[in-house]
What does this fold into?
Amino acid sequence: MGPKAENIAEYFSWFSPEIQNQLGQIRKAIKEVLPEATEVISYHMPAFKTTEVLVYYAAMKNHIGFYPTNSAVSEFKEALKPFKTSKGAIQIPYNEKLPLKLIQDMAIFRKEEAKARAEQKLKIKQKLG
It folds into this structure.
């Protein structure tokens, strides 16, 4: 992997204004539905985190990569048919319109999934403690 950005602004600065605009649209869309999430750099990519990292996004050579984990890719497989996907990843070509509503829906799905996981861990801890 290449250099690691110290923050989101530095990461964005590495790219052309057009790509910065697309990254900014994704960032804004996710912030709208995850206002409580913290923005971090994780695995050299911008990410949103609550009790765990929920989603990552990144600029690649020919596409925006959106990484909502395998569970979200599975859950939204029908809606993702127009895109190239792999386990936990979605490729959105630069020349295509960003599916911002779908990105928001996946971010919300991941938030709920993480919340349920955190609640389950708490129940186990309380049971053991």
